[in-house]
Write a structure and sequence with these properties.
Layout: E1 12-21, H1 26-40, E2 45-51, E3 56-62, H2 65-72, H3 75-87, E4 89-99, E5 119-121, E6 126-128, H4 135-144, H5 146-149, H6 163-178, E7 183-188, E8 195-205, E9 211-218, H7 227-241, E10 247-252, H8 257-266, E11 269-280, E12 283-293
Parallel strand pairs: 9-10
Antiparallel strand pairs: 1-3, 1-4, 2-3, 5-6, 6-7, 7-8, 8-9, 10-12, 11-12
Helix pairs in contact: 4-6, 7-8
């Protein structure tokens, strides 16, 4: 999501929807995307900003007061708010404001400043948290590797493979990182035009545990080259040294010899067997439980 600014259009108008949510589930997030798509199609639309946290803030910007009022009173928006009163919202406020002043700043040389999001250059590529502008890389990865990865993953709906879902996933990746819930590192080619691998350090738990769960995948064409070891070595070093996670847990199906070999080489130890642990490709599967303990 970009910061909206348009000093040349002054004055312009803003419609604010601020809310506290009872449920921030996937249907709510899809609803937000649909609302934004609807807003973009309306006359006089300028831009939007969206922030999620303890309180959600969805702002749309409009060229004229009439355009803003039309959006404020749009039948579909009113209908969604009505549904939300019974499903998502604890409370909300819908407001129209006139923007009289607009002062903005954007760094002209981003290389001079460190990003809030890590970017790690390895021998054969770049390990990074994707930006929404890179959603097509994720879409290509999940679609091109669909047949290869499906035996090792949960069943996916057709919507999972769409660009819109990939954009939504990236926004969630970035929000989870900022909220200290997880780190999704995608491994890109050196020129960052192709995604080669995926690694997810999820369910970060602090306090007396200081642990997370690890999941990963790799393109079929990159198997057997040591790339997964390279990707996970760099990611594990980051989560341990920068995030101070010192127990990383990973599981694999007993028949997945390649995954077993990757984890063993990284120093993961077997801790047990879990029966019917995860539902993979429509079936409950046993998993070998492992952990890398760095305490």
């Amino acid at each position: 999501m970009k910061v909206f600014s348009s000093s040349s259009a002054l004055p312009y108008f803003a419609v604010f929807l601020s809310s506290k949510l009872v449920s921030n589930d996937v249907t709510y997030r899809i609803m937000v995307e649909n609302v934004l798509e609807l807003a973009r199609a309306q006359p006089g639309f300028l831009g939007t900003e969206y922030g999620a946290g303890e309180m959600d803030l969805l702002v749309t910007y409009w060229q004229t007061k009439a355009a803003a009022e039309a959006w404020l009173n749009h039948d579909m928006q009113r209908r969604i708010l009505s549904i939300g009163e019974n499903v998502w919202y604890e409370e909300y406020s819908l407001k129209l404001s006139e923007v009289m002043s607009d002062m903005s700043f954007k760094c002209s040389n981003r290389s001079l400043r460190a990003s809030r999001f890590p970017k790690i250059v390895t021998k054969r590529g770049v390990l990074t948290i994707l930006d929404e502008s890179q959603a097509s890389l994720l879409r290509d990865y999940v679609n091109q590797e669909k047949a290869f990865l499906s035996p090792w993953e949960p069943q996916r709906s057709d919507a999972y493979y769409s660009l819109e879902t990939c954009q939504l996933r990236i926004r969630e990746m970035r929000r989870d990182f900022l909220e200290d819930k997880g780190v999704v590192f995608c491994f890109l080619s050196p020129n960052e035009d192709r995604m080669l691998a995926y690694s997810n350090y999820s369910n970060i738990i602090r306090g007396v545990f200081q642990a997370c769960n690890l999941g990963y995948s790799l393109r079929e064409s990159e198997q057997g080259k040591g790339i997964m070891h390279e990707v996970l070595s760099a990611g594990l070093e980051y989560v341990h040294k920068e995030l101070h996670i010192d127990r990383i847990q990973a599981s694999y199906m007993p028949r997945n010899a390649k995954s077993a070999a990757v984890l063993k080489k990284l120093g993961f130890d077997k801790e047990g067997m879990a029966r019917d642990y995860l539902k993979i490709n429509g079936r409950w599967e046993d998993h070998v439980l492992t952990a890398l303990v760095l305490r």
